[in-house]
Specification:
single chain, mainly alpha
Length: about 90
Amino acid sequence: MLWQALGRRRHYASHGAYVNAATCGLDLAGAHLANGDMDAAAAVAGRLFPIFGKLRHNREAQASLVIFQRAAEARRLDGELIRDVRRRLEASA
């Protein structure tokens, strides 16, 4: 699961599908969180930062990713937040 999500995120980002790349990153963070690895989940949030700039035309998607990143930095990520951010990203696509 983890390697598949990482591969999909890289693929989408390399093809300009930034919302899809971000949702794959959320999946990856969620998998790390489910495994009890908050540090790895927070690291994924940091790697999503370059995607933020690519979403400038979509403020809601960008804001959702900022919320995700701030929660990760504060070590306050949970599955509910990840699902909420994912829904917002998908709705904005």
